[in-house]
Amino acid sequence: MKKQISEEKIIQLSQQYLDQSIEHIDASISSRLKISRQRLLQKKPINSAFQRRVGLVLASALLLVMFWQMTPRESAITTNEFLLVEEMMRSEENQDIVNDLEFYLWLDHQVKQGELV
User: Which residue in 100, 78, 76, 103 sits closest to 88, CA to CA?
Assistant: First the structure.
């Protein structure tokens, strides 16, 4: 409870100090502040149609990124390929193929990319 009272007292003292400082402000500063205030009041507000267009573009971009992130990624090896590799590893006849597995995966990738015919 004392903390709230002290915060309220600080706010009240701050307001009093700022009010008093405005009363004793230099005339040149006061005139510059009034001129700046008038300039800001005379400025045209930003076109609301422009704001809507910008908002629409940003929302569309955000949705596009979200949907792009949700698309499944192509894994390096599919389940069927994994099962095939596992079967080959168990077979002693195909041990040479297993030893060269990286080469065959690279070769398959090259064929899929169309770099090899």
Answer: 100
Would residue 85 count as lying in a domain? Answer: yes
- At position 57, the amino acid (one-letter code) is V
Residue 15 resides in a domain: yes
- Please tell me which of 7-11, 79-83, 92-96 the model is most confident about, judged by mean pLDDT: 7-11
**Which ranges of the chain does DSSP label H, i.e. alpha helix?**
2-23, 27-42, 48-70, 79-90, 95-99, 101-113
Residue 108 has pLDDT above 80, yes or no: yes
Span 54-79, average pLDDT: 81
97's CB contacts (< 8 A; 6+ apart) are 88, 104
Cβ-based neighbours of 104, under 8 Å, separated by 6 or more: 97
Whether 38 and 46 have beta carbons less than 8 Å apart is answered as no
Instruction: Give the type of residue at 43.
Output: K
Q: Which tokens in the block code for residue 39?
A: 């300039």
Q: Could you write out the DSSP letters of every residue in 26-59? A: -HHHHHHHHHHHHHHHHSPPPPHHHHHHHHHHHH
Q: Which domain holds residue 36?
A: 1-43
